[in-house]
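Researcher: Batch entry, complex prediction.
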Amino acid sequence: MTAILMALDSIKEKKGRSFLTMLGIIIGVCAVLVLVAMVTGYNSDITSYYEKLGVNKVEISIDYYLSSRSPDVTDELYEYGNVDMSDIVTGVTPDLSTTGTVIYKDDNLDTTIYLGSDQFSTCNNYTLAKGRDISQADIEGRTKVCLLGTYVAETLFGQKSPVGETVQINGASYTVVGTYYQKDGTAEDSMDDMVVIPYSLNREVLGSSVISSYIVKVDTSNDMDAAIEELTTWFADEIDEYTGEVTLENGNSDLTSSTEETASLSAILGGIAGIALLVGGIGIMNIMLVTVTERTREIGIKKAIGAPRSEIVTQFLVESAILSAMGGIIGILLGFALSLIMGKILYDLILFPSTAITIAGFLFSIAIGIGFGLYPAVKASGLQPVDALRAD
Amino acid sequence: MSLIKIENVFKIYGDEGCENEVRALDGVSLEIDYGEFVAIIGSSGSGKSTMMNMLGCLDVPTRGEYYLDGIPIRERTERELSDIRSRRIGFIFQGYNLIPSLTVWQNVALPMTYQKVNPGDRYQRAIEALEKVDIASKAENRPTQLSGGQQQRVAIARAIATKSPIIMADEPTGALDSKTGVQVLGILRQLNEEGTTIILITHDNGIAAQAKRVIRVQDGRIISDSAPGDDPFIMSQTKKEVASAVGDGTTPSGALRVENGRAAWAGARAGGLTQ
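Model: Structure tokens for the complex:
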């Protein structure tokens, strides 16, 4: 207790120097916190992007060797997914798209046209806001209906409901039967900048009846491997080695690999910031050595009146620990402030450094204070009282 | 058993046998008993300070034995030596050696923290010690706000607060004016009368004359060890001073007294008098 008060006194006495000493630790801790928070922000940015895109998707693409010998397996796959695999599959849709111009009265807009099944929205994480989704009947009857993403709906219709209105898509008239909820900020080129029509219009819209990519939406990520295995077996029966080559991809793997990337990025940045902390620690050691020299006489007096070595060691260790702990606390506060500001600017997120990193940063800064304070403290305590007293 | 016994102690700086060899203590033997008031006198460089450092366990002899309470110091661990300095010996230094960042009472209480005295008692005991040297009113001040004499009293309070049986004073009046010096010596004498062993280091015959025993050191050796009345230098100087005072008509502010058959110079260096 006395040691803490004395250390605080001595730090107070030399405010400027103490602050400069702490600066290394402040910058180090702040850097660790901010960098890790930024990586977390980047990570959650990526994750939320993939989540909007829709997770747990098996992406299937078929490379048919001859366009003339390309069996359409859409109906079979749809049935297999929804009947045989219904315990783990929640949706099947062809994965087809093109660009097109949508015209409503005098307004027109270039956007992405998706051709999907009635399970398109399930597979791609869209939620119906108004009207109805594409139906089986639309697909069978090749009905010219469409659903609009929020960007298209708002650009062409403003506040008015588009349901029931007629738009021109690439020159043909479509009835708008529904709209989706916003999921990506209702901006140009966002996931809300889109239109969906029944996939059976593919020959008319795409000029080809060959469907070679599908999305199968699986219930949970745990079922992904089982689903891929089962689908691989099924495709092997449907499409033989002379017809084409089927590739099945785990849609989550992009997310996984990007998460892994950010984890290693986090480690690298954390390591660099850790070096800053270490340099800060050396600064503390340096200043503590100066302090020992300055206080040699005081050490001599204390030893002469009976202070044991441990007392002297404690005094200097406590001082360096407090110095670095104060640096740690200031660094943490600064780190929080910077994370908030940068998180807002870079990712539009309210970003705080994680509790674990904050605690670790604080403990690490104290450990550095003690670690680097040890040498000066031991040096001080080892002084012979008579030599120490002789110092000026 | 003596309180302090040193046997053939050497303290040698530099390399022994080489040109740079300095024998600060050159085979000193000495015994000091409980309750003595000893002055160790010598000129600068005579080895008297080295002797005090040795006796105060602040330094270790190059050769020779030092027994404190009959136990050889050589066998003590560093921790035990700290404990001895804390419990057995109170130091008073010429330069006071107070810690400027602590208040007066905290300075006095500091040795008690090393003795693990209950924090509640430390303040009380510090104040008691300060009262004894008549400086309790400055308890909350910093040492730098005090005059030299006041600081030395604080240092004495620090030495006596722990109730150490031995007080070692290294030129305690060296930085003080003669009046304050007399007061400080008075305090030491009083402590001695209460049973504390006092070891006083000085270069001043007048101050040494206050002790009951004078040990004269020169070139690292003891050249005389006697009562002040029998010390050749003190006797001759006293005579000279009296003669000079009578001769030039000035009266020394101190007075030559005869106490128990010994001459004692009650006032330190009086105006116009030199050693």
